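Here comes my example:
=====
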Amino acid sequence: MTGTAATATTATTATTGTQNGTRHHSAGKPVRWAADAVGMMREGARVRLDYSARSLWRVDRMIEEIRREGTPWAAAERVLRGFGAYAGEVIVRESGGEWVSGGGDLWVRTPDGRLWDPIDEARRCYAGEGSLRLLCLDALGGFAPA
């Protein structure tokens, strides 16, 4: 998949209730991964992530720093998953989208029906070929709400 909208024919849509409404049943893992990334950034790097589209420039910069340091893939993989999940949560919160799963993969579906793969985009960033900030801008229709 690329940083643009992806299609998936096997995505499931079962939901479970929450205090704030309805969340897709597969949202649990990426929500936890995102929260772990926020905690790691706050504790380790002293950087606050607030689930805003603007905060993704910091995440892109952190991934670039990890790449430049030559961090081995095995050491970076979990961090990248967390950063991708964080970007996905930003898209979900800003757009009103939802997490969906299929074939073991997780995507974010925006209200216009497009599917986005922020976890794979984080891996692409590590390879020097992607941007979570730009993925979010695309998903939100080209602008980041203030």
Remarks:
- Confidence is low (pLDDT under 50) at residues 1-22.
- The CA atoms of residues 94 and 103 lie 26 Å apart.
